[in-house]
Write a structure and sequence with these properties.
Blueprint (H helix, E strand, L loop, with lengths): L15 H8 L6 E4 L23 E4 L7
Parallel strand pairs: 1-2
Length: 67
């Protein structure tokens, strides 16, 4: 979970791997994830663990609109 916007790796945030199982339980159709932004690149390996529900999708952003 990203707690702020700062120029640098967000490797001191709550690890996505820790909260991803809980996030996957959300009643939503998809998740938009800013992996094109280098500050979150280390989190990419978490996708698929656990797998999303059949009616959910993940959208890995290719361009981060916050840059």
């Amino acid at each position: 979970m990203c707690w702020g916007n700062y120029e640098g790796p967000h490797d001191c945030d709550v690890p996505l791997e820790t909260i991803w199982p809980l996030i996957c339980q959300a009643n939503v159709g998809g998740f938009v994830l800013p992996f094109a932004n280098a500050r979150h690149a280390h989190e990419f390996k978490v996708l698929g663990k656990p797998p999303l529900a059949a009616d959910q999708v993940s959208v890995a952003m290719l361009i981060c609109p916050l840059l």
